[in-house]
């Protein structure tokens, strides 16, 4: 066990400076591959939240930030994007230590974050109002958009920097300010990102970071009266609690929650490509993705052949040190999640699903937080393994007969985040994509996202959208202005 006194200590980032927590307490953050603490994280509380929200509120109400034009905000965002790209390796190294993301993926992800901020830099001055030709005579009517205010950004441990950027870039383009509460398991990268805002020239207080636990930081942040909007990515239960708390203050929310997405392979699909899509959907990122294609729906006539090809492909995947470029599957990011994944494997077995690959932990690798890529066949869609989000490298395979059956099974869950269709038939692709109730549908690919395209869910997968040009409006209020052009005020007792 490392001597915690000698480890790097990460304070909160409040009002443009790194500051110690009000409590004076820190807690260790562990590398999931080595199992050892590598840094100490500030244990924030309601006092830190109060200081951060006060800083964000001041920055929103007065000073340089509200005086900036949208074009000036855009230039700051562009500069930040350049800094993120220049510091991509440093930020990626922190992400790898904190949650075991693969080196082969995370550096590219961080660089892409820089482009994300630059996309919204370009959109900042392109939110256009409109003149409304009303049915009333003697008035001139137009709309304008105004920033909502302080936004609470609450992010999970699976893709901390990426999911923080999905919220930060559009809210800053809109003119809001932010207080970030990262997962207690992966907080260091958010603090490091905060430092880059200062270098980019953002005014103090525009972006703040408070680290710590949900009850001590998350709850007082959501409840704070000066927080106007909450952007949250995470589990369904936590999202529901945030929504309930936000409702008490009539705050708006963007919630990106869980998924149980169907990856549907028809008998006319290119099976070699479909296998790659199935692997990308569930075993990439160790299955720790809200959009994971955790339910593989296979047409009966090709079931055995596809599963044989899939087992052959996945059994060759390399598990191991995420810092090595040839590693394909890393550790589960946290011990509680590792134990949850193993418990679901046992549930699947007890319900009668057949484990045809994996199904065990790998204590011989790293600190032991590895789960073999696992495939269950003979799964009925009513089983818990098919209905509940496992958030790990566990795939449920379900047979279907035809398009109608595939659509029925695909929609028969509480979630509606994503889905995919593998077919060579344009008619079939259009039919199924029209009928699936999900926010993102891929055809003959899986897991592609872009800052240009909206992402979000139907049903219990969330509220609102992230990415794309319309997302800025999640952080804006619409104001309608009526200007009288009449020289004389009409009868004041009659509504115009």
TrEMBL record:
Alphabetically ordered keywords of this record: Oxidoreductase
Gene Ontology terms for molecular function: oxidoreductase activity, acting on the aldehyde or oxo group of donors, NAD or NADP as acceptor
N-terminal signal peptide: none
Domain of life where this protein originates: Bacteria
InterPro entries in alphabetical order: Ald_DH/histidinol_DH, Ald_DH_C, Ald_DH_CS_GLU, Ald_DH_N, Aldehyde_DH_dom
One Pfam family it belongs to: Aldedh
Protein name (database record): NAD-dependent aldehyde dehydrogenase
Ranges where the Aldehyde dehydrogenase domain occurs: 21-481
Family, similarity comment: Belongs to the aldehyde dehydrogenase family.
Naturally occurring in which organism (per UniProt): Thauera phenylacetica B4P
Residues at the active site: 256
């Amino acid at each position: 066990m490392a001597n915690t006194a000698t480890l790097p200590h990460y304070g909160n980032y409040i009002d443009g400076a790194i500051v110690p927590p009000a409590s004076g307490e820190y807690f260790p953050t562990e590398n999931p591959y080595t199992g050892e603490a590598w840094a100490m994280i500030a244990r924030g509380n309601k006092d830190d939240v109060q200081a951060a929200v006060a800083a964000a509120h001041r920055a929103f109400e007065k000073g340089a930030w509200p005086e900036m034009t949208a074009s000036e905000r855009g230039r700051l965002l562009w500069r930040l994007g350049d800094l993120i790209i220049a510091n991509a390796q440093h930020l990626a190294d922190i992400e790898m230590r904190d949650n075991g993301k693969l080196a082969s993926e995370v550096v590219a992800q961080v660089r892409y974050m820089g482009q994300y901020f630059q996309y919204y830099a370009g959109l900042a001055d392109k939110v256009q109002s409109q003149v409304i030709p009303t049915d009333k005579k003697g008035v001139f009517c137009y709309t304008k958009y105004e920033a909502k205010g302080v936004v609470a950004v609450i992010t999970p441990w699976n893709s901390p920097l990426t999911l923080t950027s999905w919220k930060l870039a559009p809210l800053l383009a809109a003119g809001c300010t932010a207080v970030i509460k990262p997962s207690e398991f992966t907080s260091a990268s958010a603090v490091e990102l905060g430092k880059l805002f200062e270098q980019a020239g953002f005014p103090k207080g525009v972006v703040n970071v408070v680290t710590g636990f949900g009850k001590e930081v998350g709850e007082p942040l959501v409840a704070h009266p000066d927080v106007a909007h909450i952007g949250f990515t995470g589990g369904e239960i936590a999202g529901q609690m945030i929504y309930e708390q936000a409702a008490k203050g009539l705050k708006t929310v963007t919630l990106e929650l869980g998924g149980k997405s169907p990856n549907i392979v028809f008998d006319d699909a290119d099976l070699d490509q479909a296998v790659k899509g199935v692997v990308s959907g569930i075993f990439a990122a160790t299955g720790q993705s809200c959009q994971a294609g955790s339910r593989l729906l296979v047409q009966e006539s090709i079931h055995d052949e596809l599963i044989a090809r899939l087992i052959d492909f996945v059994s060759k995947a390399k598990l191991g040190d995420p810092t090595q470029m040839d590693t394909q599957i890393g550790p589960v990011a946290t011990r509680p999640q590792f134990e949850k994944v193993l418990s679901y494997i046992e549930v699947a077995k007890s319900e009668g699903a057949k484990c045809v690959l994996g199904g065990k932990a790998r204590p011989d690798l790293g600190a032991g937080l590895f789960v073999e890529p696992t495939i269950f066949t003979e799964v009925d869609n009513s089983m818990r393994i098919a209905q509940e989000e496992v958030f790990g490298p566990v795939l449920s395979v379900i047979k279907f007969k035809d398009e109608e059956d595939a659509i029925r099974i695909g929609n028969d869950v509480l979630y509606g985040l994503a889905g995919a269709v593998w077919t060579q038939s344009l008619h079939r692709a259009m039919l199924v994509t029209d009928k699936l109730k999900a926010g993102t549908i891929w055809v003959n690919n899986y897991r592609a996202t872009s800052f240009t395209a909206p992402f979000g869910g139907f049903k219990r997968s969330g509220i609102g959208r992230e990415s794309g040009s319309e997302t800025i409006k999640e952080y804006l209020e619409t104001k309608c202005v009526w200007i009288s052009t009449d020289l004389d005020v009409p009868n004041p007792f009659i509504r115009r």
